[in-house]
Structure formats: C-alpha cells, structure tokens
C-alpha cells in the first residue's frame, strides 16, 4: 500500500492511521505492529507531522520515479 501511493520523485507517503487502517481493512493494532516491523528492519522511516505519519520508504527497497530523479530522504 505504501509503495503504490508514494509521491512521484520521492519515496514517501503521508497518511493518518485511521485512513491507513480503512484502506487496507486491518485493525489499528495490526497496522501499528506491521509498520513497527518495517521500521525496525529499515524498510521504512516514520516521520510524525502533526497527527499524520509520513512513511519514508528506504530507496534500496522501492522508489517512485526514474533512477535519474531520485531524491531520497532515507537510504539504509
């Protein structure tokens, strides 16, 4: 879900927890646990912006846009 919704030219998507849960049809606990697992293994970095989380995907895992236009925030 994160990969499909990344903004072109970045490797990030901003979404609230309730919206994330609704889109994928899972409980808050399940989504929180899954995102924590991804963050713990350096697949994503979580940046809090007000009440919304921005999930920054490790450019080594996935990237939106062409190779020459990569402007990654997070690379592990």
UniProtKB/TrEMBL annotation:
Coiled coil: none annotated. One of its GO terms (biological process) is DNA replication. Transmembrane segments: none annotated. Pfam families: RepL (PF05732). It comes from the Bacteria. Residues 4-74 form the Plasmid replication protein RepL domain. InterPro entries: Plasmid_replication_RepL, WH_DNA-bd_sf. This is Plasmid replication initiator-like protein. It comes from Shigella dysenteriae.
């Amino acid at each position: 879900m994160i990969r499909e919704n990344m903004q072109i030219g970045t490797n990030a998507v901003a979404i609230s927890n309730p919206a994330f849960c609704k889109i994928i049809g899972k409980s808050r606990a399940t989504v929180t646990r899954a995102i924590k697992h991804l963050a713990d293994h350096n697949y994503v970095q979580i940046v809090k912006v007000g009440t919304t989380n921005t999930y920054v995907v490790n450019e080594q895992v996935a990237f939106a846009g062409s190779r020459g236009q990569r402007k990654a925030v997070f690379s592990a």
